[in-house]
Amino acid sequence: xxxxxxxxxxxxxxxxxxxxxxxxxxxxxxxxxxxxxxxxxxxxxxxxxxxxxxxxxxxxxxxxxxxxxxxxxxxxxxxxxxxxxxxxxxxxxxxxxxxxxxxxxxxxxxxxxxxxxxxxxxxxxxxxxxxxxxxxxxxxxxxxxxxxxxxxxxxxxxxxxxxxxxxxxxxxxxxxxxxxxxxxxxxxxxxxxxxxxxxxxxxxxxxxxxxxxxxxxxxxxxxxxxxxxxxxxxxxxxxxxxxxxxxxxxxxxxxxxxxxxxxxxxxxxxxxxxxxxxxxxxxxxxxxxxxxxxxxxxxxxxxxxxxxxxxxxxxxx
Length: 317
Hints:
This protein has about 325 residues and is α/β, with parallel strands linked by helices.
């Protein structure tokens, strides 16, 4: 349902985004940075991977994003017996007409929640690859376009938990950002304990925007210009990931483009007057950490530590 506040013009869509952000912060308490990153990921036309322990609000964030932004929503529960056809759809023979009719799978939605994506086998995980990269799926020799906008929010449990299949590098690279929710602070947790149930609040959440608004905002984000010193800074960060003895595999050119796109979107969400080094730093760990592979003798082995090390090692121009 589209709110009258949003008429599809850029200005009203921009106002609707601010209202949506405030509403999301009322649902996901004490996680303003994560909400900002999630919105930035959507506006940069990327996909979001949320990795954390069960019960921290990963699914709630995805549901709230779809509801407040007025996007169609499908949830896919990834399990070990999930098949690609369960995600993409299947052709069904209609005896009355003697023809096959394609039944769309749950991937045909504007926001798709791939819940516990690393509990499915690699065969099922790979069914999302074409959808995430090309915004289309190929079934029975026919290519079908997915809706616009198309945003995949995948959740996964830590890899050391039982029954997980780690995502391969090619799949991880399809996600513009990887974030963690983390435990709430004491004040937020107290409100969660004593306040209204989040599912009840979700049910009453009204849409402040619609698909046309999101497409317009994505178009605006792509128009944002970055000055030469900022491009120099991004290139210096990328170059350091390739030259550092602590990193075996640094950022690819696609990773560099992802960093620039995320920085633009973050500047837009935060209503900055331009794209600044602060925007690059705010998105850096979320964009870069899951793309880096530590060297065997690295002093920093956790991807997040590697990303923070790169940020501290490269001076701002």
